[in-house]
Amino acid sequence: MSAARQGSPARNVDASTSADPRPPVDQGTRRREIAMFLLLAVFIWPVLSIAVVGGYGFIVWMSQMILGPPGPPPV
Prior knowledge:
The chain is mainly α. The chain has a domain at 29-68. It has helices spanning 3-6, 27-67. The chain is elongated, with a radius of gyration of 31 Å.
């Protein structure tokens, strides 16, 4: 019986095919990816988080200067 009659697809074995479906990774690409991760993890995210918290504090401070301190009005 042929492969088509057995219900399984015929396999095309070629010398150019590889067992690993992933493309080869260039060493320069890997180093660049690690450098970008470290830049994000060590520099950009901490600076961004400090800027967000500082910006929120500034908004609260300015709103209290304009609207007065929080709480009920003095009697």
